[in-house]
Specification:
Strand order of the largest sheet: 2-1-3-4-5
Radius of gyration: 18 Å
Distance between the termini: 47 Å
Low-confidence stretches: none
Largest sheet: 5 strands, parallel
Strand content: 5-15%
Structural class: alpha/beta
Shape: globular
Mean pLDDT: 86
Number of helices: 10
Length: 225
């Protein structure tokens, strides 16, 4: 497939999500499969890229909740078609796999980014315990203890809710210092993750999985020594 055609399909996926045009997304997703384009690239640089722009439009108050939900519908219409065909090797999942407790922090009802990350973890072969959105802080601790998961991943879309992450990190590390904790979301930076005592920072869905793979591999190496 020519680079021009690849870029054309990526643009169709991106704009289809931004313009909440499900039919356009479905047509482009089917073309990706029929024409043999890399599915992971289509998801990350087409669908997810479109959703990132939607998030910016929402922050700028050009889009509101109804538009956000319609864009999410278009995104999921594409994911339903493409997700089963993602090659785990493209996600960087070779070798280490593990268990992840995942959720949006208390007070935060935004879960689109969290759901994309969940999908990427599942594709990579991780077992995901999805607590959903607006998750009470202590629930992250209880679920980690119950499932003995190696990783806890939290997301926040607002600076006010982000502060709850620090408390969860402290509670989990007190119970089990070996658990690896990853933070993500619009207001979160690498410096904030360090300040909160987290072990990793996810800049994007793809980055989250790659960081998680490294975390699990490091943990297993420590356990074998």
């Amino acid at each position: 497939m020519s680079e021009e055609r690849v870029n054309e399909l990526l643009k169709e996926l991106h704009e289809g999500v931004v313009e909440y045009d499900e039919e356009r997304v479905v047509e482009a997703s089917n073309a990706v499969l029929a024409e043999g384009h890399n599915v992971y690239n289509a998801v990350m640089n087409g669908l997810a890229s479109g959703m990132e722009e939607v998030g910016e439009l929402y922050d700028q108050q050009e889009y509101f909740v109804p538009e956000l939900l319609m864009c999410a519908d278009a995104l999921y219409a594409g994911l339903d078609i493409l997700k089963p065909h993602i090659d785990p090797a493209d996600v960087g999942s070779s070798g280490a796999k593990g268990q992840v407790v995942l959720g949006s922090i208390q007070g935060d009802v935004h879960d689109i980014g969290k759901n994309i990350i969940k999908m990427m973890f599942e594709v990579a072969g991780f077992t995901v315990y999805d607590l959903g959105r607006d998750v009470p802080l202590e629930n992250f601790v209880e679920e980690q203890l119950k499932t003995d998961s190696e990783i806890v991943a939290m997301s926040a879309m607002m600076t006010t809710t982000m502060m709850g992450m620090k408390k969860v990190v402290e509670m989990i590390k007190e119970k089990n210092p070996n658990v690896q904790i990853m933070l993500g979301g619009a207001p979160v930076t690498g410096d904030i993750a360090d300040l909160f005592g987290a072990d990793g920072y996810a800049e994007s869905a793809g980055n989250a999985v790659q960081e998680a793979v490294k975390m699990v591999a490091s943990l297993r190496k420590l356990q074998s020594e």
